[in-house]
Design goal:
This protein has 2 domains: 134 residues, Immunoglobulin-like (Sandwich); 245 residues, Galactose-binding domain-like (Jelly Rolls), CATH 2.60.120. The strands form 7 sheets. Strands 3, 4, 5, 6, 8, 9 and 10 form a 7-stranded antiparallel β-sheet that branches. Strands 11, 13, 17, 19, 20, 25 and 26 form a 7-stranded mixed β-sheet that branches. With 449 residues, it is mainly β. It contains 5 helices and 29 strands.
Length: 449
């Protein structure tokens, strides 16, 4: 009996001792963000803003009403240093503050492309521990370190683009586009005068049926040494898609975003480490007209945009090997281009014409035969300064089947209806002999009855 009582007393004391210990790690830090993004690439501000969220670790901890009272941020130049709690770029030390949103980075940030690996821990207080409320707040102790996050610096200085050149095809602007470039700037002419010119501009675009995409490619060797990282900075005006060794580098669509390209030209940074291989590699970029080259302009600003020009590319690739050596690949006159691919017309306002008979096969893979491809031309530099496009990308998030298909007048004309209005692209599927099929897809939003 005495033994049983002693055992019960021991268990009770253990529970009492563990209760305050449980509150010491009642908080955890999650949702680390840099400039509002998760693990962003290409941050081009030298003092990016860091944010995080403090959460209750478990409802079973008995701790409620957690409030951050202090934090510590560690930022390291490698994941290994961070794992060993060495903040060689920045160690904030313990900072008495409840701030967890837009905390300004105060470490080293003077190197383009620098990788920054970071984590956070916080000190907290609570208003309730094990059902006992406190007006002043009980000390809940220090959390553990958060899971690591990272960001990379962008191109901080124009000279860091190295020998990269803007390149383009031999496409030229139509005469009416040259007239648009020569018009007065948007803020120097009344809108009434611009609207008065609109019918004339539309009449000149009516017969335009040729505005092809541009395909550019370059082959390069990669060393057989272990590769630490490979990143590529790209600005493709107006739209671009990036391919490495025959594979699209990401799931992004409609890059780059609309800007006033006289003031700013956006670029993006992509991690392509997993797409490269030892030996021969190939990089390919497909360029569309986008908002940079409005073949069929419709906005007042596009009637007087001085930046209007044919598609062009600026690219800088940086390969870093485990032994510290580096390799660079840039856009220049050694690239090849063609405009003879399947996209014969593309315009933000007027859609796309795709001729599947002209598909280019494995055009972004090593060893591709380029008999009809030409040398890329060095292009004029856009007026706007280069800035990182720090925006979430446009991605495919769902596939919506049609809810109804109606055949009109016993001919091959169909109306497909969907359950809701949505931004997206059609996925037509047809079978037939080469050259026999022609499909035209138009969009219309019908009024809700």
């Amino acid at each position: 009996m005495a033994y049983s009582m002693n055992k019960l007393t021991s268990l009770a004391l253990t529970a009492l001792l563990l209760a305050p210990m449980a509150s010491l790690h009642a908080a955890e830090v999650a949702n680390l963000r840099c400039e509002y993004r998760e693990n962003p690439l290409g941050i081009d501000v030298t003092k990016p803003r860091l944010s995080w969220v403090t959460e209750e670790r478990s409802h079973e901890s008995g701790v409620r009403g957690l409030r951050q009272t202090a934090y510590q941020v560690l930022v390291a130049s490698s994941g290994e240093l961070l794992k060993n709690d060495q903040g060689d770029l920045w160690d904030s030390g313990k900072v008495e503050s409840d701030e967890s949103l837009n905390v300004e980075y105060k470490g080293k940030a003077d190197k383009s492309g620098q990788g920054c690996f970071w984590k956070v821990r916080v000190w907290t207080s609570s208003t309730e521990v094990r059902g006992q409320r406190s007006e002043e707040g009980e000390k809940a102790g220090c959390s553990g370190w958060s899971s690591p996050a990272m960001w990379t610096m962008g191109v901080l200085n124009p000279e860091d683009w190295g020998t990269a050149k803007w390149i383009k095809s031999d496409l030229e602007l139509y005469d009416y586009q040259k007239e648009l470039k020569g018009m007065a700037d948007h803020d120097r002419e009344s809108e009434d005068a611009m609207w008065a010119r609109a019918p004339g501009i539309r009449s000149k675009t009516a017969g335009i049926d040729e505005a092809p995409a541009v395909w550019l490619r370059k082959e390069f060797p990669a060393s057989g040494k272990p590769l630490r990282s490979a990143r590529v900075c790209v600005s493709g005006l107006g739209y671009y898609e990036l391919y490495i060794n025959g594979t699209k580098a990401n799931d992004h669509h409609l890059n780059v975003a609309p800007y006033d390209y006289d003031k700013a030209v956006p670029y993006q940074v992509h991690d392509i480490t997993q797409l490269l291989r030892s030996g021969d590699n190939a990089i390919g970029v497909m360029l569309g007209n986008g908002y940079f080259n409005p073949v069929v302009p419709s906005l007042l600003r596009e009637y007087a945009a001085d930046y209007i020009d044919t598609p062009r590319l600026l690219l800088y690739m940086f390969l870093e090997y485990e032994d510290g050596s580096v390799q660079r690949v840039v856009s220049d006159g050694t690239w090849k281009f063609t405009t003879g691919g399947p996209i014969r017309f593309n315009s933000v306002r007027a859609g796309e014409t795709y001729d599947a008979r002209r598909e280019l096969g494995h055009w972004s893979s090593p060893g591709y035969k380029m008999e009809s491809w030409k040398d890329a031309l060095v292009a004029e530099v856009p007026t706007g300064h280069l800035v990182n496009q720090n925006l979430p990308p446009v991605r495919r998030i769902a596939e919506i089947p049609q809810t109804r298909t109606k055949n009109y007048h016993q001919i091959s004309r169909y109306r497909q209806s969907y359950s809701r209005a949505l931004p997206g692209m059609p996925l037509p599927m047809q079978r037939g002999r080469r050259g026999d099929l022609r499909a035209e897809v138009r969009f219309q939003r019908l009024p809700v009855c």
